[in-house]
């Protein structure tokens, strides 16, 4: 680990004099190159292509001072996409200062937070906006401005959040794949709150581990991360307009870890101006360790997603069952394979996915991802992806 | 029975060597237990420890790959240790961290932090026999040594690299262990485990671990700078180099929770 004395970092950030020797700095990062192949041309106009190149750069800069009691992280993100001008985008994933004390931490700035325990979707994961153009897995999120006080108590960890600004969801452009027939025009975006994207959202979460149980409970009040859509005419084109409501939500997530079993559940209750409803995601995972006298572990999982609003739900898993299999080879290259199937019990549509990855040498990693969509009834919302089956190869260089 | 109890308390309470104790006609099992208890007793009271691990994995062809991990460990009275491991290399797992509360009896509590997702996952600790980071060390090889984890049998004394060693067989009590037996060579002078042979579930010799370059810290605790694990069945090996041992760092329970796991670096 390099210990570099940096004399000139934004000195305004440092409220107390720093002896150069005490300042720790580290720069790391990742360069990703991806190639996607679509066996079919898309079903919508301007999707008449089979392949796409894209590259993304995400460096991370980290400073630590005051004997480790204060640190600053800066993590910008930049993507250039061959076809999709909206997917070519930049974001600040993280730019935050953290102050540590014995039993509390204060975290201020742009951050990413994860809540939840399940695998196919995370209903309780409400803090960050999705960076949807990055992929369907919802693992990519936009940096969320916040002040987060985290208190460590004997009876658990309490996190209090003031979310000091809102980020709109990102959408593919008309040239992008994996989009609806109509594109979202972000110049038309509207909000229920008169303060629009400046509305301060509030959240609190308690989490604790008791014996084999890991439990989290949250409350959230503020702008819904998922907007409602309305088709409107704009300069003669029909486009989608996104409207962000104010919501209040409580939720619970629990995992029980018992021998080879993981039992998982997430449940939320949301109240908003148009609806109030329950939704849940529950499931279990069983792992066979060292199958066939090898070092390979095989995990089998099943999850069910329910939304009280039924087919009116904005969620994808409103009455869906998902199956997954996870192979971890536990070799020197950390090779792994994950396969999943989600079946919609209302629309009878099915989607398939396979992800595999493996390290090469010390600093490279290759991943392969394939998805196929088999929509059910004509009304199946996933029919927009009917021609978007794809296989994607990603090569990551870490530095 | 009385005399055996007396013998056990003698060895626990004094620095008598076992050759003296064996005069009390203990069974081989009792002798094996007594030696193991003494080795644990001699390593008691280190309170907390910081150390860096550098692993070099070698495959059959001699190709190497490197793992770098930093560890914080807290001794817990009457139970297993708490530890936090932070991964620095390979680079794709940098920032990944592992929190473990081990227990003398029952399953350990383990959490893994995945920095790309900012996700903390509670993981099943049932997987004791699996490889650690693709190395020839399994999770159980790296876990803290607790008396309840084995049954013991003293075999013999024999000459070893540093003087004379007790040879003790250890039979795992945990049904999830990857081994049926370990044979440990423990030096008579300082009760350090110099060599261990691991026998797989079929009873065949699987691996040999040798420990080298011992240093004594705080006038009491012996630690090896180098541990070599050789797998006789797949012909791979892993060298584990320990650096920067530091004892008595003032660590406490508050250094081992999900918040410290998420910001470990």
Task: Describe the overall structure.
The complex is a heterodimer of chains A (399) and B (265). Chain A is an all-beta fold and 399 residues long. Chain A has a single domain (11-398), classed as Porin (Beta Barrel), CATH 2.40.160.100. Chain A has strands spanning 24-37, 51-65, 70-81, 89-100, 104-111, 144-153, 156-163, 190-191, 201-210, 213-223, 228-234, 237-244, 246-258, 261-272, 275-288, 297-307, 319-328, 336-344, 350-360, 364-374, 390-398. In chain A, the strands form two sheets. Chain A has an 18-stranded antiparallel β-barrel. In chain A, strands 8-12-11 form a three-stranded mixed sheet, with no helix packed on it. In chain A, strand 9 and strand 10 (213-223) form a beta hairpin. The model of chain A is unreliable at 1-18 (pLDDT under 50). Chain B is α+β, with helices and mostly antiparallel strands and 265 residues long. Chain B has a domain at 1-42. Helices cover 15% and strands 43% of the residues of chain B. Chain B has helices at 2-13, 18-21, 28-42, 139-142, 258-262, and strands spanning 48-58, 64-74, 82-89, 97-101, 109-114, 119-123, 150-159, 164-172, 181-187, 193-199, 205-217, 221-231, 237-247. Chain B has a 13-stranded antiparallel sheet with strand order 6-5-4-3-2-1-13-12-11-10-9-8-7. The longest helix of chain B is centred in the first third of the chain and has 15 residues, at 28-42. The relative contact order of chain B is 0.17. The model of chain B is unreliable at 1-23 (pLDDT under 50). At the A-B interface, loops of A face strand 6 of B.
